[in-house]
C-alpha cells in the first residue's frame, strides 16, 4: 500500500578562532559594554552636578565660618555619595554578570532587567535597550520551536485531507455524469491550494520576522561542529596499536546508496561503542582503489585493523578489535541503532531540528563523505557545466530494479505536481526567472520525456548518467561519477521530490540536512516516510484521542504509543496501537514522533565549545 514503509535490510576540527559566531559575540559584547559605559557616565554626571550644586555656596561664601545651612548641604552630599556608592556596586555587579553572559553568547534576562530598573530608578526615565531586547528573543524555547513546526505540518496535513476528499467527490461527479459538479470541485481545489500556499508562506515569513534565524544558524553550526570534533577525536587515537577498533567491510552486496548507508551504520556503531572505525574498502565494487580514492580517509592516525585480540560482534569491552557484520545479521541488536539519538545532545537537537533523527544520521554522512580534491573538482566542473543554480528543485525518479519489487511505478507527472507547487509558492513571494529542475534517474527515457511534456521548465541532467545507473553498468568508474553528481546536485537543491523507498533519495535528504539549520520540510516523498534500513522501531505518540468512524480506522487515546508504518499523504497514517494491538489508519495530525533517546558516550574529552 502506498505510504507504507518497506522494511528491507539494506541498510578537530577546531574552526578558525575568528568565526562569524565569535565575531557576532564580540560585537554583542562591545555593544553591551558601550551601553553599560553610557549608564556609568550618566550616573557620574549626576554625581558631579550634585557636588557642584551642593558646594557652590562654599565657593561664593567669602566668610571663613560655615553656616548651618552649608553643613546641612554637606551632610546631604555625603548621603548622596553613599547612595551613589550603592549604585556603583549595582553597576559593578551588572557589568560582571553581563560581560560573562555576553562572552558565553547568552544574555540573562534578570541581569538586563536589573540594569534597566537601576537606571530608571535613578534618572526617572523609561529605559529601552533595543539591541539587547532583540538579543533576548534570539534564543527560542524548545517548546516554541516544536509548536511552530507542528503548525506548519498541520497546515500541510489538513490540505492533504481536504484535497483527497474533494478528489473523491470529483471522481464521483465524473462517474455520475455530473461535469458541472466536477468542475466546481476543481475550482475549490485550485482555490484551496492557493490558501495553503499563502498560509505556509506566511508561517515561514513569521518565522523569519520573529528574530530567531540568527540563533538557528549559530546553534546549527555549533552543534554540528561539536559532533564533527567528537568524530575526529574518535577516529584519530594517539596510539593506534592500543586503540579499540571496530572493523567494517564496505563491500555489501547492494547499490551505492545502500553501501553508504552501511558505512554510516558502522560509523554509528563505532561512535556508540567508542571504537575507532576501520573501513575495509579493498577492491570496493564502485572503485577498485578503495574508499580513499574518492573520499578523504576516515583517520589520519589509525587505519591498521590489527590488534592483540579480535572477535566477532559483540565481543567484550576489553576486546581490542571487533568485526562488525551487516545490519541484517547483527545479533544482539543494541539500542543505539537508527533512529536512536544521543541523550546528551537530544534537547539541543529536538529544539533545533524538525527531524533530529535524520539530522543525527546526516552528521555521520558529513564526516564520511568528505571529498578528495579530485572528486570535489569533478563535482564543481559538473555544476558549472550544467549551470546549476538556485532556485532549483531536485527530482529523483527511481525505476529499473526497484519498480514492482520495493516500490510502485510513478509517472513524471506525479513528481511535477509538487515541483509546480514549489515554484507557485515561491512566485507568490518573489519573481522567478526560470523554473529550474535537476532531474536524476536510472531510466534514460525520463529526461527527454520531461523536457517534451514540460517546455516551461528548464531541466538539468545527463542522460549518460541514467544509462550508467543501469544494473549492468552500475559498478564502473563512469557510473560512480554519475551517482556522485546526482546525489550532490539533489542534496544542494532547494527542494527534493522523490521516493523515500530509494536509498539515493534518502541519502540526498540526509546530506541536505547538513547544508541548512533545518531542512526537514524541504522534501516531498511520493511513497514512504523516512526510514533507515535495519532501523529500530519507529514510534509515535497520540497527542489527541480519536474514535474510529470509518472502515479501516483505529481508535486511540492521548498518550497511546503507535508503531507507524507510513503516511498515506491523505490526512491519514497507518500503524498499530501498541496498547490495543489494533492496526489501521489514524489521523496524522493527532500524533507526533516519539524519539528514541538513548545513552551514548558523552565524549568529555572533547570540549563543548571550540
Structure description:
With 610 residues, the protein is of the alpha/beta class. It folds into four domains: 142-210, Orthogonal Bundle (Helix Hairpins), CATH 1.10.287.1060; 220-367, no CATH class; 378-531, Rossmann fold; 537-609, SH3 Domains (SH3 type barrels). It is 48% helix and 12% strand. The chain is built from 16 helices and 16 strands. The protein has a five-stranded parallel β-sheet with strand order 8-7-6-9-10, sandwiched between helices. A hairpin with a 5-residue loop joins strand 13 (572-577) and strand 14. Helix 5 (142-175) packs across helix 9 (343-352) and helix 11 (373-385) crosses helix 15. Residues 1-30, 61-66, 102-106 and 130-137 have low confidence and may be disordered.
Keywords:
single chain, 610 residues, alpha/beta, Helix Hairpins, Rossmann fold, 4 domains, 5-stranded parallel β-sheet, 5-stranded antiparallel β-sheet, 16 helices, 16 strands, 48% helix, globular, disordered N terminus
Please state the average pLDDT score. Answer: 85
What can be said about the biggest beta sheet? 5 strands, parallel
Radius of gyration, whole Å = 31 Å
How widely separated are the two ends?
A: 48 Å
Number of helices: 16
CATH architecture of the largest domain: 3-Layer(aba) Sandwich
Q: So what's the overall shape?
A: globular
Write the layout of secondary structure elements.
Layout: H1 20-60, H2 68-103, H3 109-123, H4 131-136, H5 142-175, H6 179-209, H7 213-235, E1 245-249, H8 256-273, E2 276-280, E3 310-312, E4 321-324, E5 341-342, H9 343-352, H10 356-368, H11 373-385, E6 392-397, H12 412-427, E7 435-441, H13 446-453, E8 457-460, H14 463-468, H15 477-491, E9 495-498, H16 503-512, E10 523-525, E11 539-542, E12 561-567, E13 572-577, E14 583-587, E15 591-594, E16 597-598
Parallel strand pairs: 1-2, 1-4, 3-4, 5-16, 6-7, 6-9, 7-8, 9-10
Antiparallel strand pairs: 11-12, 11-15, 12-13, 13-14
Helix pairs in contact: 1-2, 2-3, 5-6, 5-9, 6-12, 7-9, 7-10, 8-10, 8-16, 10-16, 11-15, 15-16
Amino acid at each position: 500500500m502506498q505510504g507504507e514503509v518497506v522494511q528491507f535490510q539494506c541498510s578537530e576540527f577546531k574552526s578558525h578562532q575568528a568565526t562569524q559566531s565569535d565575531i557576532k559575540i564580540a560585537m554583542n559584547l562591545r555593544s553591551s559594554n558601550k551601553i553599560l559605559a553610557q549608564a556609568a557616565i550618566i550616573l557620574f554626571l549626576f554625581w558631579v552636578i550634585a557636588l557642584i550644586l551642593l558646594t557652590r555656596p562654599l565657593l561664593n561664601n567669602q566668610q571663613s565660618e560655615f553656616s548651618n545651612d552649608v553643613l546641612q548641604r554637606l551632610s546631604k552630599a555625603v548621603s548622596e555619595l553613599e547612595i551613589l556608592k550603592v549604585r556603583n556596586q549595582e553597576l559593578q555587579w551588572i557589568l560582571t554578570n553581563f560581560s560573562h553572559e555576553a562572552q558565553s553568547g547568552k544574555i540573562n534576562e534578570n541581569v538586563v532587567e536589573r540594569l534597566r530598573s537601576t537606571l530608571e530608578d535613578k534618572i526617572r526615565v523609561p529605559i529601552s535597550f533595543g539591541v539587547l531586547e532583540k538579543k533576548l528573543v534570539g534564543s527560542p524555547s524548545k517548546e516554541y520551536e516544536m509548536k511552530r513546526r507542528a503548525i506548519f505540518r498541520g497546515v500541510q496535513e489538513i490540505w492533504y485531507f481536504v484535497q483527497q476528499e474533494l478528489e473523491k467527490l470529483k471522481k464521483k461527479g465524473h462517474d455520475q455524469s455530473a461535469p458541472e459538479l466536477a468542475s466546481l470541485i476543481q475550482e475549490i481545489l485550485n482555490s484551496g491550494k492557493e490558501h495553503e500556499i499563502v498560509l505556509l508562506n506566511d508561517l515561514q515569513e513569521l518565522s523569519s520576522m520573529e528574530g530567531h534565524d540568527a540563533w538557528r544558524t549559530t546553534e546549527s553550526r555549533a552543534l554540528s561542529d561539536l559532533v564533527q570534533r567528537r568524530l575526529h577525536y574518535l577516529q584519530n587515537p594517539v596510539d593506534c596499536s592500543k586503540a579499540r577498533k571496530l572493523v567494517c567491510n564496505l563491500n555489501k552486496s547492494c547499490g551505492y546508496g545502500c553501501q553508504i548507508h552501511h558505512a554510516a551504520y558502522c560509523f554509528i556503531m563505532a561512535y556508540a561503542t567508542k571504537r575507532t572505525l576501520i573501513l575495509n574498502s579493498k577492491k570496493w565494487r564502485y572503485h577498485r582503489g578503495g574508499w580513499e580514492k574518492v573520499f578523504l580517509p576516515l583517520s589520519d592516525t589509525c587505519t591498521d585493523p590489527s590488534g592483540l585480540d579480535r572477535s566477532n560482534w559483540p565481543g567484550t569491552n576489553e576486546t581490542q578489535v571487533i568485526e562488525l557484520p551487516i545490519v541484517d545479521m547483527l545479533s544482539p541488536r543494541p539500542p543505539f541503532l537508527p533512529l536512536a539519538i544521543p541523550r546528551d545532545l537530544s534537547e539541543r537537537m529536538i529544539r533545533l531540528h524538525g527531524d533530529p533523527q535524520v539530522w543525527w544520521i546526516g552528521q555521520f554522512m558529513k564526516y564520511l563523505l568528505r571529498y578528495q580534491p579530485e572528486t570535489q573538482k569533478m563535482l564543481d566542473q559538473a555544476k558549472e557545466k550544467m549551470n546549476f543554480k538556485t532556485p532549483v528543485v531536485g527530482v529523483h525518479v527511481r525505476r529499473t530494479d526497484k519498480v514492482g519489487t520495493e516500490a510502485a511505478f510513478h509517472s513524471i507527472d506525479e513528481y511535477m505536481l509538487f515541483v509546480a507547487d514549489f515554484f507557485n509558492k515561491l512566485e507568490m513571494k518573489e519573481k522567478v526567472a526560470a523554473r529550474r529542475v535537476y532531474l536524476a534517474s536510472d531510466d534514460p527515457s525520463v529526461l527527454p520525456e520531461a523536457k517534451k511534456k514540460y517546455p516551461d521548465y528548464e531541466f538539468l541532467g545527463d542522460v549518460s548518467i541514467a544509462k550508467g545507473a543501469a544494473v549492468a553498468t552500475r559498478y564502473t568508474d563512469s557510473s560512480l561519477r554519475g551517482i556522485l553528481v546526482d546525489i550532490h546536485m539533489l542534496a544542494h537543491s532547494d527542494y527534493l521530490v522523490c521516493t523515500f523507498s530509494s536509498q539515493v533519495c534518502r541519502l540526498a535528504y540526509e546530506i541536505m540536512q547538513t547544508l541548512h539549520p533545518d531542512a526537514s520540510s524541504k522534501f516531498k516523498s511520493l511513497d514512504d516516510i523516512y526510514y533507515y534500513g535495519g532501523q529500530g522501531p519507529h514510534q509515535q505518540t497520540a497527542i489527541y484521542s480519536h474514535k474510529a468512524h470509518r472502515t479501516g480506522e483505529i481508535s486511540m487515546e492521548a498518550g497511546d504509543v503507535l508503531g507507524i508504518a507510513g503516511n498515506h499523504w491523505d490526512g491519514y497514517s497507518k500503524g498499530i496501537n501498541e496498547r490495543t494491538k489494533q492496526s489501521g489508519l489514524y489521523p496524522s495530525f493527532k500524533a507526533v514522533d516519539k524519539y528514541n533517546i538513548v545513552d551514548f558516550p558523552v565524549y568529555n574529552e572533547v570540549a563543548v565549545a571550540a
